[in-house]
Design a protein that fits this description.
468 residues; six-stranded antiparallel β-barrel; transmembrane helix; protease; glycoprotein; Peptidase_S1_PA; serine protease
Length: 468
């Protein structure tokens, strides 16, 4: 990781070091920007040319045009109100883009008669039933069925611990952690049937009434609240227990990438840590996972990898969809995972955010840090990060920039796949997965992370398909 001038001396000057991950040759994408994944060497893809789309201006209708189209000002008000309501319902309860257009049709086989979210698995890998559940504000459980075609909250009437456990198990967790009741103003609800099936979407019916407007808030794990809580000034070595979800991914005996514990069975990391051009990186047997460590000199017992799950639409050139899951061969018990954000949750630059890892502490260093390093970073709006002087249009909606535009605060080689976490309501949430950057800690070249909030449906979908 890279730090500013106010930070303590670089860690490689005061601690012992281990052998670093192999260096990565920079990839020239634009004349001013180099996309450089923060981990292992990969073949150099062909250059990618980014084109700028001319801005189109909207023209306001004249007064006569408005009257012609809407029948006067009163009609305009009614139409506007209806549009606002429709937009609100679509944003809050509408199906995700992944659910409608991003299903992996190339990796799953579905019969022509398959129906999404009817509670019956039609596709060979279950992709027709893996995008039907999500969490809203305050962990409100929201379910989409084949009949509703929209996400609606689940009415608390008839809810119990058994249904909570089965719902969390459906999502790839071992059991539920806690559930409670919320007050909502939703126009419709999903009411639990008298007989629960093996999926929540097959066990609810759409209803316009719910006693007391009370809906279910569900948490599937105790997450994001480490036992140690200290105030950190950027550039310090981590305290034991500060980031319990931090993982170190070892490839053939060397730290190569970082990762984050999502559940007792799944690690989230970056797809570029497993280049398809080198088959050895695709073999689970070549990898070991160490979780909860703060020093490479004191490794805990390793976990072995049962399965490597890469995002099917990962682009090794642009680094779009740079995300992967590792399924462990046994559950990681007694280790607290990170919290996933809920649908629509946003984080502002004013919030407390950190990135952690075992990468090099400055660009060009010969070795990675033996101690887990952390640095406070600021979230940077995509409009700023996509500006001409920064990354000039290379940031997609699936990416999040973080760091300091003045330079100094950044992740670096060896940090790939590690977490970018932000604190909200006394809990830490996984905001990003370390992906790429142009050098380390350079001015106007912040770190780029996979945007977890935009990739939630893929994450939950894969956890459901590969649940223990």
């Amino acid at each position: 990781m890279s730090y500013n001038a106010e930070a303590p001396p670089s860690y490689d000057s005061v601690v012992n070091q281990n052998t670093p991950p192999p260096s990565y040759p920079s990839l020239q994408i634009l004349s001013t920007t180099q996309i450089q994944p923060y981990s292992i060497p990969q073949p150099i893809p062909a250059p990618c040319v980014v084109e700028t789309i001319p801005t189109q201006r909207r023209q306001a209708l004249s007064y006569k045009s408005k009257r012609c189209c809407y029948g006067g000002s009163s009609g305009t008000v009614v139409v506007v109100m209806l549009v606002v309501i429709a937009i609100w319902l679509g944003v809050r309860y509408g199906p995700s883009l992944w659910a409608l257009s991003e299903r992996e049709t190339g990796t799953d086989t579905c019969p022509p008669s398959s129906v999404d979210c009817d509670g019956k698995r039609d596709c060979s890998q279950g992709s027709d039933e893996s995008h039907c559940v999500r969490f809203g504000t305050a962990n409100e459980l929201q379910v989409m069925t084949s009949k509703s075609r929209l996400f609606f909250p689940v009415c608390a009437q008839g809810w119990n611990k058994n249904i909570a456990d089965q719902t969390c198990q459906q999502l790839g967790f071992r059991q539920s952690h806690i559930y409670s009741v919320l007050q909502t103003n939703s126009p419709s609800f999903q009411s639990v049937n008298s007989q629960f099936t093996n999926t929540i979407q097959g066990s609810v019916n759409l209803s316009t009434s719910c006693p007391g407007q009370q809906t279910v808030s569900l948490s599937c794990s105790k997450c994001g609240k480490p036992p140690v809580s200290t105030r950190i000034i950027g550039g310090n070595a981590a305290v034991d227990g500060q980031w319990p979800w931090q993982a170190s991914l070892y490839f053939k005996g060397y730290h190569t990438c970082g990762g984050t514990l999502l559940t007792q069975d799944f690690i989230i990391t970056a797809a570029h840590c497993f280049p398809k051009e080198n088959p050895s990186y695709q073999l689970p047997s070549n990898w070991k996972v160490y979780i909860g460590l703060v020093s490479q000199l004191q490794l805990p017992s390793p976990y072995f990898v049962k399965q490597i799950i890469l995002h099917e639409k990962y682009d090794p050139v642009t680094k779009n969809n740079d995300i992967a899951l590792l399924k462990l061969n046994k559950q990681a018990s007694n280790i607290q995972p990170i919290c996933l954000p809920v649908f629509g949750q946003t984080f502002s630059p004013a919030q407390q955010c950190y990135t952690t890892g075992f990468g090099v502490t400055r660009q060009g260093a010969d070795s990675s840090s033996t101690s887990l390093m952390e640095v406070k970073v600021d979230l940077i709006d995509s409009s700023v990060c996509n500006s001409l002087t920064v990354y000039n249009g290379q940031i997609t909606e699936n990416m999040q920039c973080a760091g300091d535009l003045m330079g100094g605060k950044d992740s670096c080689q060896g940090d790939s796949g590690g977490p970018l976490v932000c604190k909200a309501d006394d809990q830490w949430f996984l905001t990003g997965v370390t992906s790429w950057g142009d050098g380390c800690g350079k001015k106007n070249r912040p770190g780029v992370y996979s945007n977890v909030g935009q990739l939630l449906m893929w994450i939950y979908g894969k956890m459901q398909q590969e649940r223990p």
